[in-house]
């Protein structure tokens, strides 16, 4: 029996109900067999008056088989090109049928799923929150390869199609309707097929209903072709704007733009072949393999709870206490209340707590101004937050998160003052970025209920939370903390206790390496620019100004006093000395303290010239590639150490944590995935080169050689 259920009714309408093996419909070998056979049957069908494509799953169609895509290697391009052309031919045959074809979209139709819909003459979607429509392939380093770029450009025109394609937007049903991606909406599943049949019957005498717009005589692409001034301008300037955004590191947006422009210039079938060629070139690229591995497989692994104790039943936080209403605390209160959780926000004074609550009010006011919230939503969210200066108001909290200054004694005192307010079985979380969790838990009566919950700033925007298990943290506590992070719609990675954990330690290595290069005499602006050239959102020195050099020096001093300095600081003595000099002697403590490496004014930022005068050595000769690799490899090597030492519990946590938390370039797929496509032996060799020039800190950790010898990669 085919996974495409074929039923013909008395009106000659054939309904194809896709019900493939597994939880979703996808473009895999099973699809290939079913779609090919279905097209042959439809083309031979006598008395055919129309076709409906529907789904037996909760989603309409999920897209391509990404596991299969990862198996396609360089050297097999010609064979894969032929395969894709065959599969695209089915959709071309579908839209060439002499009868109207309708897509009845009951759930998400993304990627290949929406490409099937675009091959239909009419698209009807269920008006439901479960429906998402779009072509998000660019987020995985790919382009829509089953006709999506060419058909969407032909449907909407270049100017309207490019934002959807280049940003990989997923639209809700009503937005898909207003954007022209679907033709109409219905309110129930029952209406979906009924309306599809009605539309076919209404158009039985309308020959044009069975012809795609681009196949009609005299067809002109909406918005015009390249002779149109607006389209010509978009085609001319888009590459420059794209290069500014991607810095040439992400080939997928470039190939999408090229394909869309060709769709405007060439005839339809020629443009489809260009699309296939560009799609195949992306499939075999390291960038696509890295991004598919990270953003699909490993993201699902992390969010799916691979490191959550499976024996613990799901939990939910109903009331959370947040101690400290500063930048981090007010953000934690905000995301908790936005998730519908009752929040008690405590600070040393009621005024400070109320100020922290007002942060949520400001965010909601902005949302209202943008049409994303209303006054009722604002009142409901603010009603969930209680500002206080009294410990007693924390009574009955399922979870308390302290977000105060990074001082062990202060955190210990807060624990002693407030731990008793937790509900039975409640969890205490510390929003520390560096202090050892096991050490902080010493002040707890129940250290098994203590865990690190490391948020990133700004909390309302950053999607990652790092959960840190101390030596006594129980499985129940980890499970509850994990569930809370998912409840507030963030991604949790799980690590073990160590100075700096994973993210701060890895992030710090890059900042220390940048400081080391300034101390050696390299030009600071060159360092920053080359940091951006490898895909950092902003340069490492600019980032350090935002984080503040003072905080870095304070953390290093605290760790020194504890007798546990981070290795990445010890390995870069000149860089640490420079930071101490900047903070102690030169009063350059960071942007929010008056300036750091750069000066800041209403006119923007400029390099602080005394820095150049004191440290720059114009005669120093270091290649751009060495500077880029020193920045990138410093974080990669530190990630490897975290894996080797058991700080990271999985490769997936390392990759997702590095991208979502500390700005690892997306093209790498994360700092550990980067090694897989760079090549393990090539990585070891490059590390040896860097070590010979810049110090033993660049030696590849032993785990790389062990993986290489075993014939393994980092998975």
TrEMBL record:
InterPro entries, A to Z: 3-OHacyl-CoA_DH_NAD-bd (IPR006176), 3HC_DH_C (IPR006108), 6-PGluconate_DH-like_C_sf (IPR008927), ClpP/crotonase-like_dom_sf (IPR029045), Enoyl-CoA_hydra/iso (IPR001753), FA_oxidation_alpha_subunit (IPR050136), NAD(P)-bd_dom_sf (IPR036291)
Record's keyword terms, sorted: Fatty acid metabolism, Lipid degradation, Lipid metabolism, Lyase, Multifunctional enzyme, NAD, Oxidoreductase
UniProt xrefs under Gene3D superfamilies: 1.10.1040.50, 2-enoyl-CoA Hydratase, Chain A, domain 1, NAD(P)-binding Rossmann-like Domain
GO molecular function: enoyl-CoA hydratase activity; long-chain (3S)-3-hydroxyacyl-CoA dehydrogenase (NAD+) activity; NAD+ binding
Gene Ontology annotations of biological process type: fatty acid beta-oxidation
Catalyzed reactions per annotation: a (3S)-3-hydroxyacyl-CoA + NAD(+) = a 3-oxoacyl-CoA + NADH + H(+)
Occurrences of domain 3-hydroxyacyl-CoA dehydrogenase NAD binding (ranges): 319-497
Residue span(s) of domain 3-hydroxyacyl-CoA dehydrogenase C-terminal: 500-600
Record bears the keyword ATP-binding: no
The keyword Metal-binding belongs to this UniProt entry's keyword annotation: no
Pfam families, A to Z: 3HCDH, 3HCDH_N, ECH_1
Pathway participation: Lipid metabolism; fatty acid beta-oxidation
UniProt record similarity statement: In the central section; belongs to the 3-hydroxyacyl-CoA dehydrogenase family.
This protein's name: 3-hydroxyacyl-CoA dehydrogenase
Species for this entry: Motiliproteus coralliicola
């Amino acid at each position: 029996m085919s996974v495409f259920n074929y039923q013909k009714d008395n009106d000659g309408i054939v309904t194809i109900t896709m019900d493939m093996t597994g939880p979703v419909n996808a473009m895999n070998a099973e699809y290939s067999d079913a779609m090919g056979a279905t097209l042959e049957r439809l083309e031979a069908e006598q008395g055919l008056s129309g076709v409906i494509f529907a789904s037996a799953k909760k989603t309409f169609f999920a897209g391509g088989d990404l596991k299969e895509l990862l198996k396609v290697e360089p050297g097999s391009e010609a064979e894969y090109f032929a395969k894709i052309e065959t599969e695209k031919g089915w959709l071309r045959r579908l839209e060439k049928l002499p009868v109207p074809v309708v897509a009845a979209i009951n759930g998400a139709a993304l990627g290949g799923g929406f490409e099937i819909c675009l091959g239909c003459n009419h698209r009807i979607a269920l008006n439901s929150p479960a429906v998402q429509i779009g072509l998000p392939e660019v987020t995985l380093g790919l382009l829509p390869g089953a006709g999506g770029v060419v058909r969407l450009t032909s449907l909407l025109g270049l100017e309207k199609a490019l934002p959807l394609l280049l940003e990989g937007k997923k639209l809700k049903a009503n937005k898909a309707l207003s954007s022209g991606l679907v033709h109409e909406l219905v309110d129930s599943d029952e209406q979906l097929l009924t309306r599809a049949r009605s539309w076919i019957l209404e158009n039985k005498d309308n020959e044009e209903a069975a012809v795609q717009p681009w196949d009609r005589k005299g067809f002109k692409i909406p918005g015009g072709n390249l002779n149109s001034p607006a389209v010509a301008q978009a085609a001319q300037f888009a590459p420059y704007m794209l290069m500014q955004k991607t810095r040439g590191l992400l080939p997928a947006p470039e190939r999408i733009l090229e394909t869309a422009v060709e769709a405007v210039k060439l005839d339809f079938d020629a443009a489809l072949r260009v699309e296939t060629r560009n799609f195949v070139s992306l499939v075999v690229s390291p960038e696509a393999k890295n991004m598919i591995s990270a953003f699909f497989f490993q993201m699902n692994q992390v969010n799916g709870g691979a490191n959550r104790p499976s024996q613990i039943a799901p939990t939910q936080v109903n009331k959370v206490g947040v101690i400290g209403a500063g930048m981090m605390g007010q953000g934690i209160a905000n995301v908790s209340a936005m998730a519908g959780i009752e929040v008690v926000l405590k600070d040393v004074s009621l005024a400070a707590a109320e100020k922290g609550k007002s942060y949520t009010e400001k965010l909601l006011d902005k949302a209202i101004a943008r049409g994303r919230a209303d006054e009722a939503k604002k009142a409901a969210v603010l009603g969930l937050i209680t500002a206080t200066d009294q410990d007693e108001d924390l009574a009955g909290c399922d979870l308390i998160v302290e977000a105060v200054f990074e001082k062990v004694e202060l955190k210990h005192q807060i624990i002693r003052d407030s731990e008793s307010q937790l509900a039975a079985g409640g969890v205490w979380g510390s929003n520390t970025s560096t202090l050892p969790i096991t050490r902080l838990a010493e002040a707890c009566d129940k250290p098994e209920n203590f865990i690190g919950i490391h948020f990133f700033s700004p909390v309302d925007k950053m999607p990652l939370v790092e959960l840190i298990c101390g030596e006594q943290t129980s499985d129940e506590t980890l499970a509850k903390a994990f569930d809370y992070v998912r409840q507030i719609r963030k991604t949790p990675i799980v690590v073990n206790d160590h100075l700096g954990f994973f993210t701060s330690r890895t992030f710090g290595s890059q900042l220390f390496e940048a400081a080391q290069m300034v101390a050696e005499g390299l030009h600071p602006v060159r360092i920053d620019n080359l940091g951006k050239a490898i895909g950092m959102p902003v340069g490492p020195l600019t980032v350090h100004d935002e984080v503040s050099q003072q905080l870095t020096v304070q953390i290093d001093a605290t760790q020194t006093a504890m007798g546990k300095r981070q290795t990445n600081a010890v390995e870069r003595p000149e860089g640490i000395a420079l930071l101490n000099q900047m903070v102690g002697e030169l009063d350059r403590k960071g942007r929010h303290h008056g300036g750091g490496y750069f000066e800041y004014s209403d006119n923007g930022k400029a390099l602080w010239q005394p820095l150049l005068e004191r440290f720059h050595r114009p005669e120093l000769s270091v290649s751009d590639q060495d500077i880029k690799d020193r920045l990138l490899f410093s974080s990669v090597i530190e990630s490897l150490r975290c894996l080797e030492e058991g700080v990271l519990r999985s490769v997936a946590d390392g990759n997702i944590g590095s991208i979502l938390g500390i700005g690892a370039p997306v093209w790498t797929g994360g700092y550990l995935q980067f090694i897989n496509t760079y090549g393990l032996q090539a990585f070891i060799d490059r590390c040896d080169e860097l070590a010979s020039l810049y110090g033993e800190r660049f030696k590849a950790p032993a785990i790389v050689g062990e993986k290489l010898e075993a014939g393994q990669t980092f998975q």
